[in-house]
Amino acid sequence: MRRNLIAVTYWACRAIAALYRRVGMAAATLMHRATLKGVGKGSRFQLGVRFADPNVVTVGRDCYFWRGCDVSSERRNAQLNIGDQVQINRDVHLDITGGLRIGDGVTLSEDAVVYTHDHGLDPHSTAMALPKTIEADVWIGMRAVILPQCQNIGRGAVIGAGSIVTRDVPACAVVAGNPARPIRQRLPVAQEVA
Ligand SMILES: CC(=O)SCCNC(=O)CCNC(=O)[C@H](O)C(C)(C)COP(=O)(O)OP(=O)(O)OC[C@H]1O[C@@H](n2cnc3c(N)ncnc32)[C@H](O)[C@@H]1OP(=O)(O)O
């Protein structure tokens, strides 16, 4: 009898947690659809995704935002344009001060950080805005840091986990380390799949 009660309580708690996640995601998705500048069909947001200025954010189709994703800017009207089928994992931080474009099929893994402004050697100076483009099919590994001086990550490039990227990355390059250096070249995505 006591065992049954524990089992029922356990499964009831699991059901409530699953319902909370589902309802939470539906509510968060509705809210972001209502407040962002544009959201394509099929894009979903977990609870706990934050856009400091939703008016400047455009999201394409079938994107997925995990909890803890945070988008901020040090100036008004900086734009964030996200393509289709982009995955933004847990606790990713995007600074869009300089303007940020993310192409179709990009994946940002957990805790990745992308910055688009700098302060030289004086953290109290006015932010220097540096626009950035992350081209289609790029994969940014977990805990990678993309510094403002890197203004372009070429199509199909892979950034290794924990890397510090200080300069532009050519298309299909695999870079890793601190500072990130090329470790190999990848085939264009279409050829790798074939
Ligand atoms: C979809 C998701 O979100 S999954 C969860 C997140 N997962 C990740 O972030 C993983 C990202 N992947 C990586 O970091 C991988 O190591 C890659 C893609 C960068 C490289 O993978 P591979 O091409 O298989 O490289 P490989 O393991 O053969 O390593 C080649 C060399 O680079 C080094 N290296 C590989 N990755 C890294 C890294 N992240 N940082 C520093 N050096 C690295 C290796 O030590 C090796 O050096 P050596 O030749 O001196 O021994």
TrEMBL record:
Gene3D superfamilies per UniProt: Hexapeptide repeat proteins
Domain of life: Bacteria
A GO MF term: O-acyltransferase activity
InterPro entries with a match to the protein in the record: Hexapeptide_acetyltransf, Trimer_LpxA-like_sf
GO (cellular component) term, any one: cytosol
Swiss-Prot/TrEMBL keywords: Transferase
CDD domains for the chain: LbH_MAT_like
Family recorded in the similarity comment: Belongs to the transferase hexapeptide repeat family.
PANTHER family in the cross-refs: ACETYLTRANSFERASE C18B11.09C-RELATED (PTHR23416:SF23), SIALIC ACID SYNTHASE-RELATED (PTHR23416)
Record's protein name: Maltose O-acetyltransferase
Lineage, top ranks: Bacteria, Pseudomonadati, Pseudomonadota, Alphaproteobacteria, Rhodobacterales
